[in-house]
Specification:
This protein is α+β, with helices and mostly antiparallel strands and 140 residues long. It contains 7 helices and 4 strands; from the N terminus they run E-H-H-E-H-H-E-H-H-E-H. It has helices spanning 12-16, 20-29, 44-50, 60-67, 82-90, 103-107, 122-132; strands spanning 3-10, 33-40, 72-80, 116-118. It has a 4-stranded antiparallel sheet with strand order 2-3-1-4. The longest helix has 11 residues, at 122-132. It binds uridine-5'-diphosphate. Residues 59, 63, 93, 111-112, 114, 117, 120 line the site of uridine-5'-diphosphate (UDP).
Length: 140
């Protein structure tokens, strides 16, 4: 097992409903450590860059509008197999398919407003962390 870091976003639907602590409780219960965290307002340009891989998809415009609609909380999570583990803690993209006890099952409103983002690979985790945190902001 490898100690990894992954990148997480608590999305606007969750920050709007004051669920940052409730989401963090599920993260910590799963054994992941929050080693960096800050609340920020994404710019449109930042949101478009972050979700650039989806720019041809029909939901891209809505997704960007949603991600800038309220502040978000960006985080670095550390733990054994953190990338895969956090994907499990989040649950399926569509909350209708998410397992009991996951963030998305508990809190998501829809496939778009689904409360959390987590990196899908170790390589993307490193790229995403670097978009939002400098090294000295991460304290393991
Ligand atoms: N999304 C959406 N409609 C869709 C699929 C995805 O609005 O049909 C949004 C949703 O917020 C999702 C994000 O786009 O979390 C990124 O999609 P991806 O397939 O990468 O899912 P994730 O990795 O977040 O589970």
């Amino acid at each position: 097992m490898a100690l990894e870091r992954t990148f997480s976003i608590i999305k606007p639907d969750a920050t709007r409903r004051n669920l940052t602590g409730a989401v963090n409780a599920l993260i910590e219960k799963a054994g992941l450590r929050i080693v960096a965290q800050k609340r920020i307002q994404l710019t449109r340009a930042q949101a478009e860059t972050f979700y650039g891989v989806h720019k041809e998809r029909p939901f891209f415009g809505e997704l960007v509008d949603f991600m800038i609609s309220e502040p978000i909380v960006v985080q670095v999570l550390e733990g054994e197999n953190a990338v895969a583990k956090y994907r499990e803690v989040m649950g399926a993209t569509n909350p209708a398919n998410a397992a009991e006890g996951t963030i998305r099952k508990e809190f998501a409103l829809s496939v778009g407003e689904n409360s959390a983002h987590g990196s899908d690979s170790l390589e993307n985790a490193q790229i995403e962390i670097a978009q939002f945190f400098s090294g000295n902001e991460i304290v393991g």
